[in-house]
Amino acid sequence: MFYLMIGFRNIIKNFRRSLITMISIMIGMVACLLTQGFFNWNINELRESMIHNGVGHYQFYANGFSKYGNEDPYQYLIDDASPIIKKLQTIPQIQLVTTRMTFSGILSSGNHSTVVTGEAGNPEKEKKLNAGSHLIQGTYLNSKNANEIMIGDGVARKLSVKIGDTVTLMGNMKDGGINAVDLKVTGITHSGYSDLDNLSVMTPLSVIQNLLNIGTNVQKIVILLKDTGDTARIRPQITEISKQYNLEYQSWETLAEFYQSLKLMYNIVFDIIIFIVLAIVTFTISNTVNMNLSERFREIGTIRALGTRRTQVAWIFIVESWLLGIIGGMIGLLMSYLFIGFTECIGGLPVKVHGTLIHVFFHPSFTTIIICMILFSLIAMTASIIPSRRASKISISEALRWV
Predict the structure, then answer these.
(1) How far apart are CA 381 and CA 102, in angstroms?
(2) What is the distance between the alpha carbons of residues 121 and 98, in angstroms, rounded to a whole number?
């Protein structure tokens, strides 16, 4: 308590220099929290976007599909998905269960044709899952009218087709023959990735089952949870169901490879930023303490003459710096949340990316806040150790003669 009281008094007494230190800590705190807040928001948005654009939280496959499915896809289909779906629907954390079939083929219109890859599923459920790209023209697939197709805008340009036109989809059947079906273009999508938009199509599941002659078989069962946080919680039940029906499964963590690599990159970038900020803050605090020391030689000599021990003198400076770190960190935390609150009120910070207006938010994690507070208070103490040792070693006579 003694050191805290002396520390507060010294901060008030030398307020101008203390303010410089607190401002540097505040700026460092704001920079770290807003940077991590942006990274955290961005990575969470990417995660939810990938989950709700086809990946889902879990995907079931026939046992052996991950190893051999690419070589012989028709041998690794799920025969009867109905009992599996009924079993999954009893789990309260699950919001939606749907079946899918990935396919490739040739899409043609008149004299134009192109290779396509796509997903076939239940239109009503896929619309809720928001699978695929954003619809920019036309309407979504109608489950009541099976002979429909949604195509990427790149595919539409290649074939020179528009909404309402008829295209022909050709594919290899399970028995090796070639089959074709005429489909009406109901929607054109755009994902923002040209490679995907030049290939992607989507049809009702029944169309592809008939085209490929696979009956009611499906390639995968996709599960969407009510909350991504339940992914680990229901894993034991998912594992039990996969064993019961001789299936294998993958979670979104495994399927979303781009998400994992981006998250790792963001963590590395944040570590570099916080290292640079801490180095600057350390230099600033050390410089301020050294200047304070040169101005307070006579003060040090006086308290040493009154019987204050060397270690007590050192602790006075260390605790003072620690208090500056705490106060500066708290002010930085307050300023950060004032800015975050402002961005929430205006519906996000408007930023243009490749001509598209997006609204950026900042969601720093509670763990980051605690770590930053601890780091800045500790770095403030650490930066004052060498100047404090120097202050404690000043002789009384030399300090009292200092002008």
Answers:
(1) 59
(2) 7
CB atoms within 10 A of CB 392: 19
Judge whether 159 and 116 are in contact, CB under 8 Å.
no
Residue 84 CB contacts under 8 Å (≥ 6 apart), including other chains: 60, 78, 221, 241, 245, 247
- For residue 115, the SS3 value is strand
d(CA 328, CA 379): 12
Give, as one character, the DSSP assignment of residue 187. Answer: E
Per-residue pLDDT tens digits for 95-117: 999 999 988 899 998 888 999 99
Q: Between vectors from CA 342 to CA 340 and to CA 345, what angle results, nearest 5°?
A: 110
**With 50 as the cut, is the pLDDT of residue 234 above it?**
yes
Instruction: Give the range among 73-77, 198-202, 332-336, 363-367 with minimum mean pLDDT.
Output: 73-77
- Of 311, 319, 334, the C-alpha closest to 377 is 319
What pLDDT, in 10s, does the model give residues 14-66?
777 778 888 888 998 999 999 999 999 988 888 888 888 778 899 999 988 88
